[in-house]
Write a structure and sequence with these properties.
Number of helices: 2
Number of strands: 4
Strand order of the largest sheet: 1-2-3-4
Structural class: alpha+beta
Order of helices and strands: HHEEEE
Number of domains: 2
Largest sheet: 4 strands, antiparallel
C-alpha cells in the first residue's frame, strides 16, 4: 500500500471511531517529545527509538515517550 495512513483510513470500510482514535495517536506520535534525561525536545527516529540533540538516541514507547 502506498500513501500515509490518513489516505488508507478515508474509505468507508473503517468506522468513524477507529479513524478518530488513529488520528489522535498519530497526532501525539508526530509531536515533539521531551527527553527524559535533559528535558529537551527529542525527535522520533523509528518505532520506539528517539533522538535527543544533547543526549543521543534512547528508547521509549512505540508511539510516544
Amino acid at each position: 500500500m502506498t500513501g500515509d495512513s490518513k489516505s488508507r483510513l478515508r474509505s468507508s470500510r473503517y468506522g468513524r471511531k477507529i479513524r478518530t482514535r488513529v488520528a489522535k495517536i498519530e497526532e501525539k506520535q508526530r509531536a515533539p517529545q521531551i527527553c527524559p534525561k535533559c528535558g529537551r525536545e527529542a525527535k522520533r527516529v523509528a518505532p520506539g527509538v528517539y533522538e535527543c540533540p544533547r543526549c543521543g538516541k534512547f528508547t521509549g514507547g512505540a508511539y510516544f515517550v
